[in-house]
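Appendix B. Raw example, untouched.
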Amino acid sequence: MITFPIGLQIPPLENGDRLSRPEFERRYQAMPHLNRAELIEGVVYIPTAFRFKSHGQPHSWLMGWLGVYAAMTPHVESADAPTVRLDGDNEPQPDAVLRINETVGGQSRLSADDYIEGAPELVVEIAASSVAIDLHAKKTAYRRNGVQEYIVWRVLDQQLDWFYLERGEFLTLSADEDGICKSRIFPGLWLDRAALLAGNMPQVLNCLQSGLASSIHQDFVTHLTGYET
């Protein structure tokens, strides 16, 4: 925990501030009433209150989908809006992440003060539309730092974008002939995109269960548990 000399005035965080990551953390920790703030490409972003249908409910649906996958996949961990220390100019709080534990080869790690450091394998953001920061500055930061897959649900546009990293660039993950998106990093993480956009969570979870029952997921579980021996 960072401490400061008695009487030292710490400026508050403000939208648009241009700060280094250490200075961002210094100011953020001095504002315990502030629930969420992000540093993206050296610029501070403080979101407004989240609405139910345009953010809160979609967020809960995606967390349910990821949570079930993590529960059924040893050494894979999901998290709701964790702080992620990406690099010196970026400390986002993505809406959700899915990571492989570093003890079994995952590319991110947990710091001594319990923050994610480095890029989680999968990052998810809920965005209002295609003009949101999630498809611009954040996408650039996630790509540059090696996030392997990036999902952006554009709620107002009724679209869901799923990107995967290949040779340093984000490419669009296409659905198969049945309309199912299948993760390239997390075998068995399957998503019926049309069902999700329609709010049909039973079908979303049915599709995921099919992925969890697949041989590729079983092989992935075997691979991860092999580290335990």
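End of appendix B.
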